[in-house]
Amino acid sequence: MSLALDQVINKALASHNSGDLIEAEKLYITILQHLPRHSSVNYNLGLIKTSTDEPKTALPYFKVALEENPNNEIFWVSYVQSLIKANQITRAKKYLKRAMKHGVSEENISHIRGQITNAIKVRSLARSNTSSHPPDIQLAKMFASFNSGDLRA
Which long-range contacts (CB under 8 A, 24 or more apart) does 31-40 make? Predict the structure, then answer.
């Protein structure tokens, strides 16, 4: 790696650490134009995407980081958690099994299992709430009728 590229990486990390995510993102993207498979740069860009966009946009970056460094526990944890946040529960379960095979700690595995369970519960509640309650427009009409004294159903 060239000295100039090392300097850009250091500048990107400094921007990221100081909270200047816009500058860090620009620098990370520049670096990836020259080193598209750089695991740490992909991971850090995934972190920025997770914090500023939909988690789905972080997935490709975390995946490359994992492919390049499959023994990095934090890469596994971040990827699976982003899958959960992106509501890709089936994929999250699949990658959690892979993470276990790559030696991710039982503490992290347990924590992620809890996140998957919670995501499934939330999805189930959301489905049951939308199917058992009248639409907002229907409720608004009912309240308007009630408030006007029109008690006909």
Answer: 31/5, 34/5, 35/1, 35/5, 36/64, 37/64, 37/67, 37/68, 38/68, 39/64, 39/65, 39/68, 39/69, 39/72, 39/75, 40/65
